[in-house]
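Hi V.,

Quick status before I head out on leave. The structure for the redesign project is tokenized and pasted below; the design run finished overnight.
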């Protein structure tokens, strides 16, 4: 029996295929190493994701705090402005009330002075009459 060239090539090809198949299986240590490498890579990716999310959350929180501080400052300024305006209005109202009270007091003093002057004049007139010569009075029966 003669082996033909095609048969030889087929035998060599099958041998090589079997050898390659046998070599493609990993040993347990190689498989464990590959799994460790994959786990390390997944851990790196998860850590990077967590760091990115934490950074974004911190930036967002910082922006929210900055916005809240700006809002609080604006509200404080508005309240201070309103308080200053109210104080100014109160001062003006008190000033006007003081002027009105002073004017009323002056009017009252002028009226009291006039009344006192009238009372003095009336008292003088009464005193003159009392000192003046008595007028004869009709006495009945005389």
């Amino acid at each position: 029996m003669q082996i033909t060239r095609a048969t030889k090539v087929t035998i060599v090809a099958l041998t090589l295929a079997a050898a390659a198949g046998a070599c493609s299986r990993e040993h347990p240590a190689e498989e464990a190493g590959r799994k460790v490498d994959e786990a390390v890579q997944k851990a790196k990716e998860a850590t990077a994701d967590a760091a990115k999310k934490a950074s974004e959350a911190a930036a967002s929180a910082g922006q929210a705090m900055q916005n809240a501080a700006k809002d609080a400052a604006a509200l404080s300024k508005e309240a201070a402005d309103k308080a200053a305006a109210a104080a100014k209005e109160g001062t003006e109202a008190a000033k006007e009330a003081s002027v009105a009270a002073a004017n009323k007091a002056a009017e009252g003093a002028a009226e009291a002075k006039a009344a006192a002057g009238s009372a003095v004049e009336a008292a003088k007139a009464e005193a003159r009459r009392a000192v003046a010569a008595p007028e004869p009075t009709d006495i009945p029966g005389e």
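Above is the designed sequence. Residues 56 and 62 are 10 Å apart (CA to CA).

G. will cover questions while I'm gone.

Best,
W.
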